[in-house]
Amino acid sequence: MDAFWSRHRYWIIGHRGARGHAPENTLAGIDAGLRLGADMIEIDVQYHADELWLLHDLRLERTTSGRGRLADARRAELEALQVSGEPLPSLDAAIRRIDGRVPLNIELKSAGGSAEAVARCLRAHLQQGARPADFLVSSFHLPELARFRAALPEVPVGALFCGVPLDYAAAAATLGAASVNLGADFLEPALLEDARRRGLALLVYTVNEPEELVRLREAGITGVFTDYPDRGRTAAGG
Ligand code: G3P
Ligand code: MG
Question: Is there a smaller number of Cβ atoms within 10 Å at the N or the C end of the chain?
């Protein structure tokens, strides 16, 4: 496994910031994740109206003051939205808020240009002094992730799986990924073994139960996405 992962024995990754403590995918959530000791912060990003927005759902109503599909909204409407009293953040604002204190895991939720837009955004930050290891870009949409990798190969990527592929971790290796990011319901030993054999880190989402956080550390999993980074810290031993 490469040097990126050797910084922590068991990575505690704040899921959508620190979703158990603060509104998801907000700057306040990022602050909470950092305060609670996350080793990395994960956010969901979608590209629309020439901007990268922090938003998990394709629709606006669950987490914002808006209604309807993000894809149907005008930029001015999005700029006026409230997310628990704050503006809907952009990727650029999230990167500035973290300011290189921990790596930021940017999950591409949409295709249609998001790979190139994220690459442009990260390239600008790299030119201003950020390091490639300040970022991990991931997606379930592996062709979009491949486009990101082609656009900005120095930034590590993680292949997201919500199940067990026929060829186990082969797609992650083909992508040149640094990690397999796997749903907790699919901890299939053959997939874990194949990922390990290929030198890939294993990150598991979303793990909130204290005993499960400990069990996965003892099983040698590289890291976990959790809504409760404080519980993760306890399980990691501080
Ligand atoms: O990146 C891990 C996890 O966030 C993937 O699932 O739906 O919470 O974005 P979701
Ligand atoms: Mg996510």
Answer: C
For 69-123, the three-class secondary structure string (H helix, E strand, C coil) is: EHHHCCHHHHHCCEECCEECCEHHHHHHHHCCCCCEEEEECCCCCHHHHHHHHHH
**Which residue is it, tokens 């998801």?**
24
Neighbours of ion ligand 2 (CB under 5 A): 44, 107
Q: Is the CB of 205 under 6 A from ligand 1?
A: yes
114-127 and 91-98 helices, crossing angle to 10°: 30
Residue 225 vs residues 2, 36, 57, 146, 150: alpha-carbon distances, Å: 20, 13, 18, 23, 26
Residue of 24, 41, 42 best suited for mutating to test ligand 1, as the one with most atoms within 8 Å of CB: 42
Q: How confident is the model at residue 196 (pLDDT cuts 50, 70, 90)?
A: very high
Are 78 and 88 in contact by the 8 Å Cβ rule? The answer is yes
Compute the distance between CA of residue 229 and CA of residue 17 in angstroms, rounded to an integer: 9
Look-up of token digits 């390091």: 131
Mean pLDDT value across residues 103-114: 96
- Under DSSP, is residue 146 helix (H, G, I), strand (E, B) or coil? helix
Average pLDDT, the chain: 97
Q: Is the pLDDT of residue 1 over 70?
A: no
- Give the number of other Cβ atoms within 10 Å of residue 53's Cβ: 25
- Residue 159 to residue 213: CA distance in whole angstroms: 21
CB 109 within 8 A of CB 55: yes
